[in-house]
Amino acid sequence: MKSGELLRELYHCLHCHLCNFADWHALDEWLPLCPTYAYFGFESFSASGKMELARGLLSGELKPSPRTLQILFSDLGCGACHQQCRGLTGLKVDHVELFEELKARLVEKGYGPLPEQKAYAESVRKNHNPYREKHEERTSWLERELPERAETVYFVGCTSSYRQKEIAGSTAEVLLRSGEEFTVLEDEWCCGSPLLRTGQRGLAREVAEHNLEVLRRAGAKRVVFSCAGCYRTFSKDYPKLLGRKPELELLHTSQYFLRTLSGKGLRGNGKRVAYHDPCHLGRGMGVYDPPRELLRRICGEGFLEMKRSRENSWCCGAGSGVKAAFPDFALWSATRRLEEAVDLGAETLVSSCPFCKRNLGDASRKRGGIEVRDLSELLEEALA
Amino acid sequence: MRARIKEVERKLAGVVGGENVSSDPSDLLPFERDDQFFLVPPHRPDLVVRPGSTREVQGVLRLAHRYRIPVVPLASGINRKGLCIPSRGGILLDLRRMNRILEINEEMMTATIEPGVSFGQLVNEVRKTGLRVITPWAPSTASVLANYMLRGIYGPATRYGTDHLISIEVVLPDGRLLRTGSLNTPTSRPLPYCNLVNGPDLCKLFQGNPGTMGVLTRGTIRLYPMPEVMRPFMASFPDYESMVKPAIELTVRDVVEACWTMTFTPSSLRTLTSGGRLEGFADMFGGEDFFSMWLYVAGERERAERDEQRMRKIVEESGGTLLPLPPETEEEMIKDEIWERTSVRGWKKGNLYGCSFYGIMKLAPEYYRACREISFRYGFDEFHYEAVPVAPFHGQLAYNDPCILWDAGDPEQVRKMRKLHREIMRALLKVGIYGWFRPFPGVVEGRRMGEYGRLWRALKDLVDPLHLMNPGKPPL
């Protein structure tokens, strides 16, 4: 949308604040849904408040201040607000896209991102990952030889490569046991998601071009992602960045494993398990059922559904550079999620995104009372 | 001026904590306009303050009083009709931190709550008791107390009316505390459940005012038994006139808890139903307006069954046809009646103009025709109209709302809408109405109200001599 059209559209937010709450008609319960507004409390942090900020910034009425940056760069990009608003009101703006656009325009004008977010962009430029880790150690988790070329490529992502290596290991193990040939990329770069979510678009195109080129060289026809953020970035952002759709089949591991493990027996684990929808996978890509189907095969009756799930899922609080720049807020949001799972009687909270696992895991270590796992880990155990 | 604001900000931080005060434009901008900005020009507050208790509200108002700074209270942030636009700047008092449900008393059938409690929050708790909150035709995010203070329109207003507030606690503009009704009786225990004692009910003095006389910090409201059975119905009629007699009969004989006469032009119906289960419904009417009555039968099973038979007879004898409702629509209508959500569909075009008022039920067709003609003349064909009999029905009291779906992002439409608004008001006064429902600032002309208006102004001067509370807002 051009600035003029966008500005006109912003007058259609009626400040009903339905975007701050889960759909109580569907859930039969009144539950908050916007972590940012619930934590910071000021109207400016709610989606409708940010709509007004957008209006102020686009019209030139508002000069950005450090507070403006705090408000916009603490936005999680979880899409909960858009999910509630769309179809119900006349607002045609996609909240996630709008807030990302605002961040990008601010960065272009020399405002933001926040120092922590800027630092990881510098690391992506230097090390091809936001964690300031050496690029050559990207596949240090890998314990076996894989072919240089394969039709199926597992795109590992930075968090599983450097921080949650157990997810990379489990995913590779399940891929092996599913019997299909695959490989990983020696020269995989950050997908660009942390850059795009924080308005740092400049470098994002370069990493997108690079990743698609190395995938081409590897002979990839299909790419499998254990990271919900990478999956969404390839699927939704690369076409916009590059002006073309990658000619690849893109699948999240939950979708891929549902297909490849259909005939395989999965051993039950006898645990009470709740599933946390990663925002990039659920609201971002509309993938809700595959992880649940796999978990039901493993946990049977032990699979528990939290009230706030699927479209009405509460964000873990890590995304869009929030964990780096607002660690207390990120931890608070994750703790609320853990409490929801504990109240339900779950022993394990499972997600299908390494960044969710990382943040929920941090909260779990602090709070205790529940373990946090990734779907791939449960699948590996179920196949053992 | 800026230095003075900064000084006040520092002092306010001492009252509510620095984390609950801001003068940053980014925190102020969201309060400068609402969706009726075309009638109430945007204006930014100088400060936003978020008190967490009555004591903190008192502290804020004492400071405002000392520094002569206007205060605009806002309860849940659903800011409509320009009522919370700080036309002279000052402090925007955001009461959303005060969201405690202090008591739900099943025996007394009451709830005592703070102003930041929303309908959704309260319904969620009250439902556990078998009691019911009377909810407005507004999103459940709305503040219960703000809505009851401003007298909203409620789904079941036909049976339950609009008066659900018993007693209140108000911080006066200089920081003093006022309690109304039995809250004021010097007994050994606080009893907020009665408004009939200690002289005239001063709670009413503060109703219909958007914080122009003080800041409400708690209130005790009426709850009602949750009906055993609730069934929604939709009936179609050949024209507006044919809906009037049954609407009056259904109300007078207390057959239904809700009776909404609603008419839609085909284009408004098309927009409102787009993307929903009833998409395509508008095409059934061949370019004619759709005249409908939305009815709810509710009560104990035996009564509800009897009422349903009576309702069917009254509707059919008046030329109405009861339409089959898909189960999902029926379920949604029940949920909306208990705790509203979907009324925001009225904004599907982008914006919704409404000029609601109280009038006489038998005149509803005249109101409708006058407003429809003006709407079409200005090129707005997405028009719909609703009239709802309200209890107690003496004087055939009916809430009326001519609604236009429009696009406030289009400057040309904004210009037209300003003119249309004035014309609709003139036309309605000509037909004859009781008065405006929750009016826009400036609509009620106190100076044309003789002694009544003078007394109102004297009362305002007495309570708020510095005119600091939400200046420029109705009723006068």
What is the approximate shape of chain B?
globular
Silhouette of chain A:
globular
Which structural class matches the secondary elements of chain A?
Answer: alpha/beta
Rg from alpha-carbon coordinates of chain A: 20 Å
Question: How would you describe the overall organization of this protein?
Answer:
- The complex is a heterodimer of chains A (384) and B (476).
- In chain A, strand 3 (222-225), helix 13 and strand 4 (249-252) form a beta-alpha-beta unit.
- Chain A starts with a helix and ends with a helix.
- Chain A has 3 domains: 3-108, Alpha-helical ferredoxin (Fumarate Reductase Iron-sulfur Protein, Chain B, domain 2, Orthogonal Bundle); 121-259, Rossmann fold; 266-382, 3-Layer(aba) Sandwich (Rossmann fold), CATH 3.40.50.
- Chain A is of the alpha/beta class.
- Chain A is built from 19 helices and 8 strands.
- Chain B has 476 residues and is an alpha+beta fold.
- Chain B has helices at residues 2-16, 25-28, 54-67, 119-126, 144-149, 157-160, 203-206, 241-252, 266-273, 301-317, 327-338, 364-377, 411-431, 450-463, and strands at 21-22, 47-49, 71-74, 91-94, 101-105, 110-113, 131-132, 165-171, 177-179, 215-222, 224-225, 229-237, 258-264, 290-299, 321-323, 351-354, 357-360, 383-389, 397-406, 435-436.
- In chain B, the strands form 4 sheets. In chain B, strands 12, 13, 14, 15, 16, 17, 18, 19 and 20 form a 9-stranded antiparallel beta sheet that branches.
- In chain B, helix 1 (2-16) packs antiparallel against helix 3 (54-67) and helix 12 (364-377) packs antiparallel against helix 13.
- Chain B is globular, with a radius of gyration of 23 Å.
